[in-house]
């Protein structure tokens, strides 16, 4: 119990939770919006299996490889991104060296890797919607925007609930990208909870306290998942 008492008074733990929540909000927000957009485009504009494979390809690349590639591309001195900024007259950005940019950059890398996989999950949900519903909406003169918000999103709710639970749990597990690119810096700006647990266990050999944090993280994820499922009514469908 001393470990849990220590947790309450540990500023690094609360900072790690704050950083993790910031990352989760960025990652989930952008990944979900982009994935839904890509899924709708794939359904409406093309039936190409090749394009679906291209969208999924980043997901099959190991996290460490993806992180290394983007780390070199976003390097302040020689990275192609900052070289391009310099060429067009913009100031270079220390993507991994500035506190304000570090977590958004990590979130961008993981959104790029996972958005194709998430889009295909949403696309699979779109395939289950009865097309007669859209045909009836066309007869009533509904536009694309109205069909999307009044038909597509409500009927996708069970699928989106599953996608949200999976992506939120995955976001809380962020470790590889941080370990490869920032090692928790600058000044703990990217010290997410998983990296903090790892550092305690294998960097400081404080296995007892690290285990207590791991149990707390498990409980948090279980509660968050149950709340998500309840709020999104995952077991219900609006389809008649």
Short structural description:
Helices cover 74% and strands 0% of the residues.
Structure description:
- The structure is a single chain.
- The protein contains eleven helices and no strands.
- The chain is mainly alpha-helical and 240 residues long.
Question: What is the topology?
Answer:
Layout: H1 2-8, H2 11-45, H3 49-56, H4 63-73, H5 80-87, H6 99-127, H7 131-139, H8 144-172, H9 176-181, H10 193-203, H11 207-231
What descriptive keywords fit this protein?
single chain, 240 residues, mainly alpha, 11 helices, 74% helix, 0% strand, globular
- End-to-end gap: 52 Å
Poorly predicted ranges: none
Global mean pLDDT: 90
| Helix/strand order, N-terminal first | HHHHHHHHHHH
- Find the count of extended strands (DSSP E, 2+ residues): 0
- Radius of gyration from the alpha-carbon trace, in angstroms: 21 Å
Q: What percent of the residues sit in helical stretches (DSSP H or I)?
A: over 70%
In terms of structural class, how would the helical and strand content be classed? mainly alpha
**Major sheet details:** none
Q: What's the number of helices?
A: 11
Instruction: Specify the overall morphology.
Output: globular
Beta-strand content bin: under 5%
């Amino acid at each position: 119990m001393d470990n849990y008492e220590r947790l309450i008074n540990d500023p690094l733990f609360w900072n790690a939770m704050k950083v993790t929540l910031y990352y989760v909000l960025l990652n989930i927000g952008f990944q979900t919006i982009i994935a839904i957009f890509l899924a709708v485009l794939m359904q409406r504009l093309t039936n190409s299996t090749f394009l679906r494979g291209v969208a999924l390809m980043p997901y099959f690349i190991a996290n460490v490889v993806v992180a290394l590639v983007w780390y070199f591309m976003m390097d302040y001195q020689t990275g192609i991104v900052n070289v391009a900024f310099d060429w067009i007259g913009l100031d270079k950005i220390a993507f991994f060296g500035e506190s304000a940019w570090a977590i958004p950059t990590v979130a961008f890398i993981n959104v790029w890797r996972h958005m194709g996989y998430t889009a295909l999950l949403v696309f699979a949900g779109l395939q289950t919607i009865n097309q007669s519903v859209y045909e009836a909406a066309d007869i009533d003169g509904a536009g694309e925007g109205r069909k999307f918000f009044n038909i597509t999103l409500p009927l996708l709710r069970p699928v989106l609930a599953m996608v949200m639970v999976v992506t939120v749990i995955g976001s809380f597990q962020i470790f590889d990208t941080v370990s490869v690119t920032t090692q928790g810096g600058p000044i703990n700006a990217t010290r997410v909870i998983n990296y903090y647990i790892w550092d305690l266990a294998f960097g400081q050999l404080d296995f007892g306290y690290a285990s207590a944090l791991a149990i707390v993280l498990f409980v948090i994820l279980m509660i968050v998942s149950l709340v998500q499922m309840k709020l999104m009514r995952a077991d219900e469908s609006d389809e008649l």
